[in-house]
Amino acid sequence: MAYAHIAHDCIVGDNVIIANSVNLAGHVDIEDYVIIEGGTGVGQFVRIGAHAFVSGLAGVRKNVPPFTKAAREPLQYVGVNSVGLRRRGFSNESISQIEDIYRTLYVKGHNVTNALAIIEQEAPASVEKDQILNFIRNSKDGIMRGIS
């Protein structure tokens, strides 16, 4: 798309859509099936997890976990990318489990450490659960904020 900029040492996964006027700073890691709408700026060393959706004109300063929708200013969690997941063949059960995980992390008022412990113990085993937990645990600079 026009006027998009991908700086040095970025990694862009497969089936990623980067719209007009998106700017990625250096060392950004965009996983598979991410959509970034127009006019968005992504800061240096930020990671955006697989199947995430980032709204237009966003300023992405923290990591965006997989399967989420990110919007507003400052950037925050606004839900699970359920439309994108359905389009890619995820079952309703898988989407519901992902929603439950993010409800624990972002909606129920836990800090990240406590939420991860609860998710580890209570959420059913799945590839998506492991992917989310690994992403967050490896986000040393933090993840986007929750609903405010």
Give a brief description.
With 148 residues, this protein is α/β, with parallel strands linked by helices. It has helices at residues 82-87, 92-107, 112-122, 127-137; strands spanning 5-6, 11-12, 17-18, 23-24, 29-30, 35-36, 41-42, 47-48, 53-54, 59-60, 68-71, 76-80.
Give your account of this protein's structure.
- This protein has 148 residues and is α/β, with parallel strands linked by helices.
- It has one domain: Udp N-acetylglucosamine O-acyltransferase, Domain 2, CATH 1.20.1180.
- Helix content is 30%, strand content 20%.
- It has four helices and twelve strands, in the order ββββββββββββαααα.
- It has helices spanning 82-87, 92-107, 112-122, 127-137, and strands spanning 5-6, 11-12, 17-18, 23-24, 29-30, 35-36, 41-42, 47-48, 53-54, 59-60, 68-71, 76-80.
- Strands 3-6-9-11-12 form a five-stranded mixed β-sheet. It has a four-stranded parallel β-sheet with strand order 1-4-7-10, with no helix packed on it. Strands 2-5-8 form a three-stranded parallel β-sheet, with no helix packed on it.
- Strand 11 (68-71) and strand 12 (76-80) form a beta hairpin.
- Helix 2 packs antiparallel against helix 3 (112-122).
- The longest helix is centred in the last third of the chain and has 16 residues, at 92-107.
- The chain is globular.
- The mean pLDDT is 97.
